[in-house]
Amino acid sequence: MFALTGQIVAGGAGVTLALGVLFVTPPDEEFVLESRRLEPISVVAGGTARFDLPFTNTGTTPVTGAVLAVGSRHLAASYRNCSTVGDHLVCTFGTRLEPGAVYGLSEPLVFRPPADSITGSRMGADVTWYTRADYAAHPIFTPEPGATYEWRTEPPDPRWGIAPELTLKELVDPPADPPETGDPWDEFEEAVDITVTDGRPADLAVSGARTTVTSGPSTVRVRLVNHGPGRLYPDLYTNNSPALGVTFPTGTMATTDPDGCYRFADLRTLECDRGTDFTIPVRVTKPEAGAGRVEIVGRSGALELDDPDRSNNAAEIVAG
């Protein structure tokens, strides 16, 4: 197994970020720096959410140095010991961490949702605290055994901030962990979960399709549009990439999977989720009475966004 590493030292903290290639041995024990559970956060569109990311040294010996990785590069952080690595914000610290002690950030991290965000938009980001050895061997930067890792572009140069360092402080009276809620998002209990309130509504709509072919190859084009005024930010919010569920009429099936679409076993049902305009090659074998359907669906089921007019969230697909 190998990890991505390099010789980039952050702001005097003495931690090397993973950006090159080096053979390492993964640690056999669990991470000793354990993130605390976080309360869900609500913030108005155009407002500011501030939050701490506390953690505990669960080991039996002191640890010197820590690395924080947050799965979002959209947090407002310009500290000279923080940078972006891929889609993560990464901050390095040289603090001595005593066993059993709880630590937090010297000042909260900040998230500012755009003013035209759609009500119900959610920003989710995994949070992990590492020792230096943990960070070097973590799967985010270490492919699975036998996997081939390729940068989509050249390895990015870290973009360090210029503000004074973010530091750690021991929390003498840390807050209690929040109770579990039964929310599916609790699966990511050590994650940041921010929901936008008082934003703008969306008006998502789909266009249906008709093919006049009664037998043989044809195409079906379906489209997703947002009439606003709220804006979709798919790179910012985890639920701002609605998918299209496509079901063809009986006797019609997809012949290939367009980019962003995935066929189910019956070949009459697709889910398309990496775009807004899809032209789908199909074959008509026996036109039947009745229509197929295209509809907007959320990534995990129901659409969570504020879309008051849902009458245009579905349309027919007709063949023959």
Please render the helix and strand layout as text.
Layout: E1 2-3, E2 22-23, E3 33-35, E4 41-44, E5 49-51, E6 55-57, E7 63-70, E8 82-85, E9 88-97, E10 102-105, E11 109-111, E12 122-130, H1 132-137, E13 168-170, E14 191-197, E15 204-207, E16 209-211, E17 216-226, E18 243-247, E19 252-254, E20 261-263, E21 269-272, E22 277-284, E23 292-297, E24 314-319
Parallel strand pairs: 4-14, 16-24
Antiparallel strand pairs: 1-2, 3-6, 5-11, 6-10, 7-9, 7-12, 8-9, 10-13, 12-14, 15-17, 17-22, 18-21, 18-23, 19-22, 20-21, 23-24
Summarize this entry quickly.
This protein is an all-beta fold and 320 residues long. It contains one helix and 24 strands. It has one helix at residues 132-137; strands at 2-3, 22-23, 33-35, 41-44, 49-51, 55-57, 63-70, 82-85, 88-97, 102-105, 109-111, 122-130, 168-170, 191-197, 204-207, 209-211, 216-226, 243-247, 252-254, 261-263, 269-272, 277-284, 292-297, 314-319.
Broad shape: elongated
Largest sheet: 6 strands, mixed
Q: Percent of residues in helical segments?
A: under 10%
By secondary-structure content and strand pairing, the structural class works out as mainly beta
Distance between the termini: 55 Å
Q: What's the number of helices? A: 1
* Element string (H = helix, E = strand): EEEEEEEEEEEEHEEEEEEEEEEEE
What share of residues are in beta strands? Answer: 35-45%
Number of strands: 24
Strand order of the largest sheet: 4-14-12-7-9-8
Radius of gyration: 24 Å
Average pLDDT confidence is 80
Pick out the low-confidence regions. Answer: 1-29, 147-155
